[in-house]
Amino acid sequence: MILNIFQDNAFFLQSAIKCFNAADIPSEYAVFSKKAFGKQLHNEKDNVFYYKISTEEYNNFIKTIPDKNYKLILFHSLFDTNAYVAKQIIKKNKNHPPLAWYIYGSEIDNAFLFPGRYFGKLTKKIYYKQKPYRIIIPFQRIIKRICGNDLKNVINNIDYFVHFIPEEIKFAEKELGIKKTSLWFIYDWLEDIIGKDFLNEKVEKNESILIGNSSSYNLNTMEVFSFLSKAKINKKILVPLSYGNKLYRNYILKKGRSLFNSNFSPLLELMPLSEYNKFLASCSFLIINSYKQQALGNINFAALYGAKVFLNDYTSTYIYLKKIGVKIFSIQDLQNNLNDELFTALSDEEANSNRKILMDALGKEKVIKMIKESFADFI
User: Fold this and answer.
1) Which residues, at least 6 apart from 356, have a Cβ–Cβ distance to it below 8 Å?
2) Are domains 2-111+150-187+366-378 and 191-362 of this chain identical in fold?
3) What CATH number was assigned to the domain covering residues 191-362?
4) Please, which of 8, 53, 86, 260 could form a disulfide with 33 given CB 3.0 to 4.6 Å?
5) Where are the domains of the chain?
6) Cα separation of 363 and 365, whole Å?
7) pTM of the model as a whole
8) Burial class (CB within 10 angstroms; exposed 0-12, middle 13-18, buried 19+) of 231
9) d(Cα 167, Cα 256) in Å, to the nearest integer?
10) What does the pLDDT look like over 335-359, one tens digit per residue?
């Protein structure tokens, strides 16, 4: 049996339950928080249990892990709370089961002394200007490293790296300087992510450009604004800013309106998934200027719908999509040779080819098969 560990928001909990159930992988799910869960109770039907850290129930759970029939403990991210739980399991249980980490990406940032490792020059300047106290973050991380409590130490004790993009695992190994055995997992298959009503949706060839998916510094939106404004691209610029850093969102709003005037159209409110899928299908082009893996949902949606997608050509997502045959484009091409030809929509033939490739790689049948094979040794 596999023990899956989530922290309080448990964003992908139901998706993980669905995927492991479909693959017939016996699993339990523990959700941890530093705060009380209120009226939220254990859900024994789905083997989901909730624990507030430092309570008697929590301490007893950590203590008795070696006595249970867990063949693997899978951490869904190693963010703050999950990293703490991992430290406790490593420290208090010498005979704990093997540990696995599903890579969300931001943990890699946090494993380094200096924040902003994946920011462009413009974005880094904004990051420190908005909150100058961030310059002390490296000193805080140095103290944690000296005390043996930093994230890198936790990652060193992990046995397996988990992702569905092999290149992302290679990226993590290279950045962190360690090699691990890999496992394959994804949180859903495309049929359910998109929904049957939108599975055959095709992008509107209306020339609009979608930039990023949130007000996250890691998307380096200002760098995109810079080269698009210099090239005087006369197209609708759509920027989702419904979640993320509020200070940065306000900055992007101000700059977007200044640079693109009436062509700038921010998305400020969260939408139901069906409405957001319609929104994605209204964009002919997508630019994700992250310097590492990010916005996979948006990228897959856009490529499936037939949009032209631009990513940095050294990112794991670009390399993976290119390798499986998806027609993908690089931001480097945009920066070096920005012209109208690059902003010509994909042909129907190209769009249909991308759709078939993605459905073959990440459709339900393939996903269940890959999960079964990957976790067979832990049943």
Assistant:
1) none
2) yes
3) 3.40.50.2000
4) 8
5) 2-111+150-187+366-378, 191-362
6) 6
7) 0.91
8) middle
9) 33
10) 877 766 677 888 889 999 999 999 9
